[in-house]
TrEMBL record:
It comes from Coleofasciculus chthonoplastes PCC 7420. This is YhcG PDDEXK nuclease domain-containing protein. Pfam families: DUF1016_N (PF17761), YhcG_C (PF06250). Residues 178-330 form the YhcG PDDEXK nuclease domain. GO terms for molecular function: nucleic acid binding.
């Protein structure tokens, strides 16, 4: 009986892995091709409906009739309901005058994602952001919805606090800046009030998949309370990640209060140790992110000015913000405190 040599087995496993990658890649490309074909069909249908209605003065009834006739002619094909035909018409109208690059982007994401963006986002620049992010990051429809609710586009336009331009090569600084958000939405934790740092960390680890989605594409989790040693001393990083595209370690320090200047010094020290002990020879310099509840931009700017390692400072949001039109109408924490104090019985001096 012949036996398979270990070297042959290893070579075969590598061969099988390469075949699997090819099969998966082929299926992904086929799915994308089918989606592009479907979007092009819907675009053509929407254009025909709009042009005929305008040229011949047809009213809304034509869509109902068209739906019935198409379903009778192509019973095996879904997507010809009156509702979907109206959405197809709206889809064409929404992008008919849009720039060519935007028309190309809509073909890169599924129809359901297109409907969500079309119905919820009216600003063209914001639509571009969500279309591009969905195509590039592969957001599911639920993730896309959560990103829209969290105002990901508005957050992306806010100024970001970091020292990347002075501590990283230009090409890498731009990539790191794009990766960092000014604010992270942690509403998925379901917390209704502020918590201690340890509890915040435990909740993030318990919902790690959601946290990775919020961080963005490319983050790979390494560990929590990651141990570093220097001589006889030991230190613990709250969270440690590796970023596949930046090709560097990313340390995250969680703070439930407002940013303080000493946090930057602590992170700078951690990054020095990381680079000395954990960084691989072909890795880029490690990056630190201080995630806190509040920050003063001027204070952050001065705190990072002389630091030699790349550090970003961002805030997080635990629960939905009060809509702008209602801000100032609800009592603040100080108001509640005054109300409680006034409700207490006065002390008897006797």
């Amino acid at each position: 009986m012949s036996t398979i040599k270990p070297s042959f087995d290893r070579a075969y496993q590598d061969f099988l892995r390469d075949i699997k990658i090819q099969v998966v890649q082929s299926r992904i490309e086929a799915a994308r091709a089918v989606n592009r074909s479907l979007i092009r069909l819907y675009w053509s249908l929407g254009q025909l409906i709009v042009e005929r209605q305008e040229a011949l003065g047809w009213g809304k009834a034509v869509v109902e009739r068209l739906s019935a006739d198409l379903k009778a002619e192509f019973p095996q094909i879904t997507g010809f309901s009156p509702r979907n035909l109206w959405l197809i018409k709206q889809f064409y109208e929404a992008y008919a005058e849009a720039p060519e690059f935007l028309k190309q982007l809509v073909a890169e994401i599924p129809w359901g994602h297109n409907i969500l963006i079309m119905q919820r986002i009216k600003d063209e620049v914001a639509r571009h952001y969500y279309l591009e992010a969905t195509a590039r990051l592969g957001w599911t429809r639920n993730v896309l919805l959560n990103q829209i609710k969290a105002g990901a586009y508005e957050v992306s336009r806010q100024d970001k606090s970091h020292n990347f331009s002075t501590t990283l090569p230009e090409y890498l600084a731009e990539q790191a800046e794009e990766t960092l958000k000014s604010q992270y939405s942690l509403e998925f934790l379901g917390l209704t009030q502020a918590v201690h740092e340890q509890e915040l960390e435990r909740n993030l680890i318990a919902r790690l998949k959601d946290f990775l989605i919020e961080l963005g594409y490319g983050f790979c989790f390494i560990g929590s309370q990651y141990r570093l040693t220097l001589g006889e001393n030991e230190y613990f990083l709250d969270l440690l990640f590796y970023h596949r595209f930046l090709k560097c370690l990313v340390a995250i320090d969680l703070k439930t209060g407002r940013f303080r200047p000493e946090y930057a010094g602590k992170m700078d020290f951690y990054l020095e140790v990381l680079n000395e002990q954990e960084r691989a020879p072909d890795d880029n310099p490690s990056i630190g992110i201080i995630l806190c509840a509040q920050q003063d931009r001027l204070e952050v700017e001065f705190s990072l000015k002389l630091k030699t390692n790349p550090i970003g400072v961002a805030t997080y949001q635990l629960y939905p913000q009060v809509p702008e039109e209602y801000q100032g109408l609800l009592p603040t924490d100080e108001d509640w405190q005054r109300l409680l104090e006034s409700a207490l019985p006065e002390e008897d001096d006797n």
